[in-house]
Amino acid sequence: MAALGWLLSRKRSATARSVLAGEASAEAARKSAQESDETSAPVEPETPEQPEPEFPVAGDEKAAAFFDLDNTVMQGAAMFHFGRGLYKRHFFGKRDLLRFAWQQAYFRLAGTEDPEHIQDARDSVLSIVKGHRVSELMSIGEEIYDEYMAERIWPGTRALAQAHLDAGQKVWLVTAAPVETATIIARRLGLTGALGTVAESVGGVYTGKLVGELLHGPAKAEAVRALASAEGLDLSRCAAYSDSHNDIPMLSIVGHPYAVNPDGRLHKHAREHGWRLRDYRTGRKAAKVGIPAAAAVGALAGGAAAAVALHRRRR
Question: pTM, whole model, 2 decimals?
Answer without folding.
Answer: 0.69
